[in-house]
Amino acid sequence: MSASLILYVDHVSQPARALSLLCRAIGVSHQEKFINLMKGEHMTKDYAAVNPFKKIPAVKDGNTLLLESCAALRYISSKYDTSGKWYPQDLDVRCKVDEYLDWQHLNTRAHGMGYFRNSLLLPVLKKTIPDKSVVNGHKKELGRIGRDFEKYFLGSKPFISCDHVTIADLLAACEFEQPLAAGYDWQDPVISFIQRVKSEIGPEYDKVHSSMRELTKSLSEKLAARAV
């Protein structure tokens, strides 16, 4: 346990949610410092002193500073998870965790966030209407991603690398939730996968996702009101 572990997060961010949920699941003592993305707090001089890239999340543990979420997930699991469950030592299992974490950047992450931003966030902030061609492009890619996830990463397994949840599953579920809240219709097995991860985490899962869902609801209402 280490109270020196600090997460700089906003739970509207997918990787920030994954890090918060990991720390809660492991039971490691930590602080969560809230940086409000919608208010631009990540762009302030104070936050730039922590993260010069001005991105969320960031993790500080004593003298160790990590600005990339996947590196932070690996670090926290390796240092604080005594069960060895979240980032398994077995190389055959761990390599599949790493493979998904590397793959998701240009797939689940890119197009899930792209769908969310272009269907809701940017139209509300810029007071425009969603660009259907851009939204449909992300929607098409999300369909492919769902199929790839089913056929390659899951197969007949309940989770990505083995028969229990790991940091790869945690991040995947958090990324899948973003376009889902924005109206994307994930099909099985993605929906069932999300439910399995949620069951493994327990009540903290919905608690950590609540602010993102509230933001998405607010954005949807504002967009709908403008269309009337």
From TrEMBL:
One of its GO terms (biological process) is glutathione metabolic process. It is an enzyme of class 2 (transferase). It comes from the Eukaryota. It holds the Pfam family GST_N. One of its GO terms (cellular component) is cytoplasm. The keyword Mitochondrion does not apply. This is Glutathione S-transferase theta-1. It comes from Halocaridina rubra. The lineage of its organism: Eukaryota, Metazoa, Ecdysozoa, Arthropoda, Crustacea. The gene is GSTT1_3.
